[in-house]
């Protein structure tokens, strides 16, 4: 099997979800890092929306690129369902719950992106109402994550859905990990102790530890 290529930005929690899934399933891939907002980016060559991550197949394969991290995760679990771990349960209702958690995680990350870009604007042009709205999304997601983990812990379960690790667990770890990395909520570990314990247990796993975010140096002005 020729290696796939995952185009990513080094701090991206979106791409981290895909990197973990590929690694867990032992699917060979090459990681190509770039900054999609800079002039030398190749991102538009593979994704008309000019967003990362993008999963690119070998020329000999003939398949078009796959983009959007949630869709890449879906692609990985469906096209490589013969490789363990499954990362979904196979039960329709449980798998719909898994995908709902992925949606919540990515929505939280989208809010963080919007917060960061608004924060890069000149202070006189920033909208406090907009910042407040994105912060409410972030806080709401964190509460929801903690409640999910607490409910599962009360039932004696270590994973968010089912009995094994799924893409739901991966999504929440990557989201919480990015909040921690960016110091967006410095007191979250004290406020959400149940979530902290769950997060730390999974984040120490090899595939998670090896994919933690690394900040890039943004050199060009973003329009």
From TrEMBL:
PROSITE patterns tied to this protein: GST_CTER, GST_NTER
Protein's UniProt name: Glutathione S-transferase domain-containing protein
Pfam families: GST_C_2 (PF13410), GST_N_2 (PF13409)
tRNA processing found in the keyword field: no
Similarity-based family: Belongs to the GST superfamily.
Domain GST N-terminal: 2-84
Keywords of the record: Transferase
Keyword check for Transferase: yes
The organism's place on the tree of life at top rank: Eukaryota
Gene Ontology MF terms in the entry: transferase activity
SUPFAM superfamilies: GST C-terminal domain-like, Thioredoxin-like
Domain GST C-terminal: 91-223
